[in-house]
């Protein structure tokens, strides 16, 4: 699904968060949104998902303005994976993933829905956990369940809000591989907010770098990850190496390090 | 075996496990229905006048199949069964269903495992309305429905006010609970003031009214409450699948196409009318709406599609049991069932908390 964002503005009372975002995302790209805290990444994702109504601007899915779509219609197009999702009263893993079928059935799930959920669980390596309680899983397993739920939704676009932030490096790689493989197998697009520059550079087809509510830079990882951009956006001096065609970013020090009093002992 | 076959086999295992799980949950509901029916018979048979279990069902059949009614002579036991005990027990079943299902729903909607059907101030508002009628004789409806009408109207008014106030803040669970708490204290204070100036006999009657009791039940009252409970129960079961999704958080639920705010307000309105319909006829019967859902959660888990109806049936079982104890333990004195449910509910609830050791998840 082609997603276009035109002149998107969003503000909370007293704070402008998005100040004119323009984007054009192609069908099957993995797009990573990067930027410092408070730059508007998560808000952008929530606006595209329709969780936050923008003040002005358009979000267009394959030529249809999202404001003309109902919640259910959006739910059939977009699968959303929140940073984490806690359940007050725990459901089983199977039932949690089955929730992804909700936009497609009205009151009762059909045998087809059960087939789809069982297949997704199998592919995500959750088969042995399918009857476990969601609340009893580890953070990495819960994240996998949430991705499985979004895949069971059979969306055309997957939106993820920091899917790896709570995970150790093994699970980070695992989650990214799962996303990468499902995108190519199912031909869906991915837009994810992520903090880890190295994971982004390894898996992204396209990087969107945000700063203060605008898109600072947008393009392939090798165009975006430059010393100048990192310094400008994060205020951090960094070295950038290329290893087997993948860029890695090593932060060195804050550019304004002198301003931090030494007594704080941070650096 | 090829890898595709292996995959298919494996996901077949997942499906089998799921089907088994689903069947077990359904069996629980199906098994509860005969339990309730048998319990009604047992509860009717229990009491100060000697009545056999068989008499109960004989009377029931005679009453339900009119052709037989003329042929049989209405004996003493039949009058006791039909006029005294059965209305009381049927009212107990209805109250148990309403309180259990509403409790289960409100725990999810208000995101609070300690929520019960009175969380939106229904009981104190109903108590205020009843006191107004009993002590001052002021009411909206006249005649025998003076007290009931007042209790119903004030409890619906209270919940309506809470929804209207919290609706301005996006109808968040926190704002609902806090406004509910504020109104609870407001109505309690108002009731105290009326009682302070009231005649002592009337105040006693008003206090007695607020303690939940099934003794006021008759067939006319049941003909009003039964449709309210029946329709409310169906509406809650209809929304129970959405409640499952709302339990994973508002953002998740919205992203799956659920109208979170609309569903929250809709289910609250249904719960209010159901519980107000019961409270205005019986007074406040506590603990059923809190304990029944948690009991079911422990047995078959948190799937609201099963939990909502099952908590209603378990609520009916608990309430009828409590009422049987209330009628027999100090016979011929009949205790108000509201006092007995607290005696049963508190130890049961503490047991549930201890058994869970840490977190009602």
Describe the structure.
- The complex is a heterodimer of chains A (267) and B (361).
- With 267 residues, chain A is α/β, with parallel strands linked by helices.
- Chain A has 2 domains: 3-222, Rossmann fold (3-Layer(aba) Sandwich); 226-267, no CATH class.
- Chain A has helices spanning 41-49, 71-77, 93-98, 111-123, 139-152, 169-186, 197-203, 221-224, 227-234, and strands at 3-12, 15-25, 30-34, 56-61, 64-65, 78-81, 157-161, 189-193, 206-211, 214-219, 236-243, 246-254.
- In chain A, the strands form 3 sheets. A 6-stranded mixed β-sheet of chain A has the order 6-7-8-3-9-10, with helices on both faces. A 4-stranded antiparallel β-sheet of chain A has the order 2-1-4-5, covered by helices on one side.
- In chain A, a hairpin with a 2-residue loop joins strand 4 (56-61) and strand 5.
- In chain A, helix 5 runs parallel beside helix 6 (169-186).
- The longest helix of chain A is centred in the middle third of the chain and has 18 residues, at 169-186.
- Chain A is globular, with a radius of gyration of 19 Å.
- The termini of chain A are far apart.
- The mean pLDDT of chain A is 87.
- Chain B has one domain (3-356): ABC transporter involved in vitamin B12 uptake, BtuC (Orthogonal Bundle).
- Chain B is 78% helix and 0% strand.
- Chain B contains 14 helices and no strands.
- In chain B, helix 1 (3-45) crosses helix 2 and helix 5 (122-136) packs parallel to helix 7.
- The longest helix of chain B has 43 residues, at 3-45.
- Chain B is globular, with a radius of gyration of 22 Å.
- The model of chain B is unreliable at 357-361 (pLDDT under 50).
- Classes of the chains: A alpha/beta (267), B mainly alpha (361).
- At the A-B interface, helix 2, strand 6, helix 3 and helix 4 of A face helix 1, helix 9 and helix 10 of B.
């Amino acid at each position: 699904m082609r997603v276009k964002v035109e002149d998107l503005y969003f503000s909370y009372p007293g704070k402008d968060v998005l100040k004119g975002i323009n984007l054009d995302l192609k069908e099957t790209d993995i797009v990573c949104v990067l930027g410092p805290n408070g730059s508007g990444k998560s808000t952008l994702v929530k606006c595209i998902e329709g969780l936050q109504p923008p003040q002005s601007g358009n979000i267009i899915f394959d030529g249809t303005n999202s404001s003309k779509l109902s919640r259910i219609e959006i739910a059939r197009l977009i699968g959303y994976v929140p940073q984490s999702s806690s359940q007050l009263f725990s459901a089983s893993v199977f039932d949690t993933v089955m929730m992804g079928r909700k936009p497609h059935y009205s009151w009762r799930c059909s045998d087809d829905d059960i087939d789809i959920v069982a297949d997704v669980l199998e592919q995500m390596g959750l088969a042995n956990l399918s009857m476990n309680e969601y609340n009893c899983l580890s953070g990495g397993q819960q994240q996998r369940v949430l991705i499985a739920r979004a895949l069971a939704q059979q969306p055309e676009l997957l939106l993820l809000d920091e899917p790896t932030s709570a995970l150790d490096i093994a699970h980070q790689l695992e989650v990214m591989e799962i996303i990468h493989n499902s995108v190519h197998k199912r031909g869906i697009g991915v837009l994810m907010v992520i903090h880890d520059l190295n994971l982004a550079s390894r898996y992204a087809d396209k990087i969107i770098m945000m700063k203060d509510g605008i898109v600072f830079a947008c393009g392939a990882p090798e165009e975006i990850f430059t010393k100048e951009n990192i310094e400008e956006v994060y205020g951090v001096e960094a070295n950038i190496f290329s290893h087997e065609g993948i860029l890695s970013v090593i932060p060195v020090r804050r550019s304004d390090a002198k301003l931090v009093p030494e007594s704080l002992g941070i650096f | 075996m090829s890898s595709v076959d292996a995959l298919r086999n494996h996901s077949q295992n997942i499906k089998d496990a799921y089907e088994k799980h689903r069947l077990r949950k359904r069996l629980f509901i199906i098994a509860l229905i005969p339990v309730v029916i048998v319990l009604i018979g047992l509860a009717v048979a229990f009491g100060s006048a000697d009545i056999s279990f068989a008499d109960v069902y004989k009377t029931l059949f005679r009453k339900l199949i009119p052709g037989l009614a003329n042929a049989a002579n209405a004996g003493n036991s039949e009058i006791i069964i039909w006029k005294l005990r059965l209305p009381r027990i049927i009212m107990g079943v209805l109250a148990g269903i309403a309180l259990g299902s509403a409790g289960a729903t409100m725990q999810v909607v208000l995101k609070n495992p300690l929520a019960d059907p009175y969380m939106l101030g229904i009981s104190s508002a109903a108590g205020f309305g009843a006191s107004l009628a009993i002590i001052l004789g002021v009411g909206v409806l006249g005649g025998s429905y003076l007290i009931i009408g007042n209790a119903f109207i004030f409890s619906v008014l209270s919940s309506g006010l809470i929804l209207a106030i919290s609706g301005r803040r996006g109808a968040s669970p926190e704002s609902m609970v806090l406004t509910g708490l504020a109104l609870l204290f407001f109505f309690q204070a108002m009731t105290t003031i009326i009682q302070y100036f009231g005649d002592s006999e009337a105040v006693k009657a008003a206090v007695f009214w607020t303690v939940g009791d099934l003794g006021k039940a008759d067939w006319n009252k049941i003909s009003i409450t039964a449709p309210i409970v029946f329709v409310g129960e169906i509406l809650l079961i209809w929304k129970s699948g959405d409640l499952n999704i709302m339990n994973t958080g508002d953002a998740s639920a919205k992203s799956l196409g659920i109208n979170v705010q609309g569903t929250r307000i809709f289910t609250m309105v249904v719960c209010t009318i159901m519980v107000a319909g019961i409270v205005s006829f019986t007074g406040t019967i506590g603990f059923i709406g809190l304990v029944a859902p948690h009991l079911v959660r422990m047995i078959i888990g948190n799937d609201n599609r099963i939990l909502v109806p099952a908590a209603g049936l378990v609520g009916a079982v608990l309430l009828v049991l409590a009422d049987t104890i209330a009628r027999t333990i100090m016979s011929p004195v009949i205790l108000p069932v509201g006092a007995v449910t607290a005696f049963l509910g508190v130890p049961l609830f503490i047991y549930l908390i201890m058994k869970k050791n840490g977190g009602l998840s």
